[in-house]
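Hallway conversation turned thread

IA: we were arguing at lunch whether anyone had actually written out Lipoprotein end to end. Turns out nobody had. So, for the record, here is the sequence (299 residues) and right after it the structure tokens. Reply here if something looks off.
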Amino acid sequence: MRSLIHYPLSLMFLVFSPACGEKHSLGELTVSAGDPSSSSGDPSSSSADPSGDPSTSTTGELPTTEGNDPCAQHTDEATCVDAGCEFVGGGALEADVDGCHWGDQALGFCASISGGSQSPAIHCDPDGVPVVFSFDPLNIPADWGNCSCEVQGLALDCYRYAINLGPQSCGALTDHCESLTDQASCDQFQGDPGLNGCLWVESTHEVAAEPACSAEPPVGRCIPVHLRQSGGCFDTSPPASCDPAHAGKTPYFGPVGEGVPTGVELELLDDVSCQFEPLDYSPCWADEDSPAGCDCACD
């Protein structure tokens, strides 16, 4: 596959294993140097390297600051820094009728020393707000509770899908998008770039045994997507006989159901704008294994 103009975090194929009802630590626990106090806001802009071997990833209870860190008494960034401590900040996740958003306030905790794994992590603050850290902090305070799929599922999926956790996420975003049955309400739930949302698409069921592309009218539906930080389509190579001629758009394909090979039947999403990346779909002609049904996107 050729590179994206701006390769999104979701295509780095980070594979982690958070479980609902546990602290959402998304990487192996190691000690890391560096000052994370500037990590408040959008954690996706972090320079931390999240590309470690996912086969060795672990989740578990982290050491806390309970009873052994005098800096833990400071509850805001200003007093924390004034006391000579380090503020470990992250970006709050919010979900409302207009989509997924980063919170404006800097949320985090105060510690004498910071450190942790190099992978992004989600933890919930004492008020139950999911907070994304650009690295997984070593010393989460005792009053930071577990993130629950039952309570924060939609907000958690705003970010989880962005780092390609797929089926291991709560599943709330998929359910939410599928419940939106008209284009206006679907496209309204998009929110901030770098997070996930919904998009109204037209899909066609293509069958390889047919002599020509399906003549059935496309079906409109609402699907979960990743909103890229900036535009940029896959640099794909359609067949020489194909003239898609849709600059700024890419066709995607996906399975019609479990156990049905996409070489036999597939669902084709034609003309997806480049700022959106459909989740659980693959771009047509990105590699040699692209199914023949993708040619139905040709003019």
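OS: looked through it. The first strand starts at residue 86 and ends at 96.
IA: good, adding that to the notes. The chain has four helices and 13 strands.
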